[in-house]
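Sequence in, structure out. First:
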Amino acid sequence: MAKVKKIVPAGNEREMLKKTIQPRVAQITTALTDAATGMWVEKEVDMVDPKTGKKLGIKVRRVYQKDPDVGAGQYLLNQVVGKPKETTEVQGQISLIMDI
C-alpha cells in the first residue's frame, strides 16, 4: 500500500500543532513537571557477565532517580511567569535604520 503524503498549507502549522497537542496537555504538563523536579525511573535490564560481556538471561529491575531537568523547569517557569527580558550592553556608536 502506498503512503499518502499530507500537504499542510503554509501558515496552518501552528493550528495543526494545537489540535494535536490540546487533547494531551495534562499528560504533557505532568511529564514536564516530573522532568523538572527529577523523576523516578524503573527499568528492566539484562544481567551481563562482566568478564565476557555476554547476557546471562537474567532480567533485573533497576529503580533510580534522574536529576532534575533544568531546561524543563525553565520552560515551565517561562510559561507561568513570563520569559525574562534579555538585556544587551553595547559600547560605541550604533546606527539604527527604521522603515516608517
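Second:
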Amino acid sequence: MDTLTECRRCSKLKSSSHGLTNWLDELADKRVQIRIAARLRQAEAGSLGDWQAVEGDVSEMRVHFGPGYRLYFVCRGRIILVMLNAGDKSTQKRDIRRALKLASELGEVL
C-alpha cells in the first residue's frame, strides 16, 4: 500500500505552523472559511477528496469554490497528514515553493 493510501486511512491532522490557521482566519469570506474547514474535517475523517501530487512528496487538496483554493500537505508516517500551507490558483506557484520548503524543514519524521 502506498503512503497516500495509508495516509487517507489516518484520523490525525496536524498543521506544520500557525501559517495555515492565520491564512484561514484572514479570509474575508466566511463561506470560504466554512468550506475549507469542512474540507479539513473531511481529510481528518480519512477522505482527501480531490487531490493530486504536485512535486516531491507535497500534494494538494483542491477546493472548487471561489478562485480555486489549494491546501498543501505531506504525509509523515502512517498516521499524520501534515498541512503545510494554502492559497488560491493565483498564488499557486509561490505556495508550492513554500510547501516544498516547509516539507524539507520537517524532514521525514515529526
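Remark: The first strand starts at residue 12 and ends at 15.
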